[in-house]
Amino acid sequence: MSEKIKNVTAAVLCGGKSRRMGFDKAFLMDEEQYLLLQTVRELQILFEQVVLVSNTKAKFEDRTGFREIPILEDFYIEKGPIGGISTALQEVQTEYIFAMACDMPLPDVSLIGRMYRKLGRKQVLVCSHEGKLEPLFAFYHKSCLPAFEEQIRKNELRPRSAFSSLEVEMYHLSGEEKRSIVNLNTPGDVQKWNEKTAKNERD
């Protein structure tokens, strides 16, 4: 896309507990750089506004490179991704957010652009592949907030639990597009991703 998207704020969710990783996934490194900063730079190619949503701003204070990035502190503590999405919907000024997890390295901005072109006026545009949804790689309209807050009140914390009450459009991923959506949940995932990245650079 030649012009940046103006009516959407990209919101990267950074408030998870990272139990399987053993340390905060927001601070995964690629050589000497934080993967999260690389993700922000990629998203800034496409979006005018990129924010981080975190359980606390304090964890970024002594980390190099984060000073210029807006950080929203989660209103919904211990409520998982639905809390982060709801915080972003409540705080941003744009009509939509694009929400993604911080453990998805180097997002494919071409894929996100194709998703945006399919968005139309739906409340939610979410990726699907072989019947599985990717609610943490999706567009959400601000009008989703009441439905998500109701789910939080009921302690039903999966974002998709609110989809039955919203206008949802599916973006069906091709096999190639599916390979571009990677989650790094464990040290083993990081090792595999590093090996794949190194192989791609050699090729």
TrEMBL record:
CC cofactor: Mg(2+)
Residues that bind Mg(2+): D103
Broad class of where this protein is predominantly found: cytoplasm
GO MF, any single term: molybdenum cofactor guanylyltransferase activity
Residues given in the record as GTP binding sites: L13, C14, G15, K25, D74, D103
Enzyme class, first EC level, given as a word: transferase
Enzyme Commission number(s) from the entry: 2.7.7.77
GO biological process: Mo-molybdopterin cofactor biosynthetic process
Keywords assigned: Cytoplasm, GTP-binding, Magnesium, Metal-binding, Molybdenum cofactor biosynthesis, Nucleotide-binding, Nucleotidyltransferase, Transferase
The MobA-like NTP transferase domain, residue ranges: 10-157
GO cellular component: cytoplasm
Location relative to the cell: Cytoplasm
Reaction catalysed by this enzyme: Mo-molybdopterin + GTP + H(+) = Mo-molybdopterin guanine dinucleotide + diphosphate
Stored SUPFAM superfamilies: Nucleotide-diphospho-sugar transferases
Family: Belongs to the MobA family.
Role description: Transfers a GMP moiety from GTP to Mo-molybdopterin (Mo-MPT) cofactor (Moco or molybdenum cofactor) to form Mo-molybdopterin guanine dinucleotide (Mo-MGD) cofactor.
PANTHER family referenced in this protein's UniProt entry, alphabetically: MOLYBDENUM COFACTOR GUANYLYLTRANSFERASE
Comment on protein domains: The N-terminal domain determines nucleotide recognition and specific binding, while the C-terminal domain determines the specific binding to the target protein.
Protein name (record): Probable molybdenum cofactor guanylyltransferase
Organism: Faecalicatena contorta
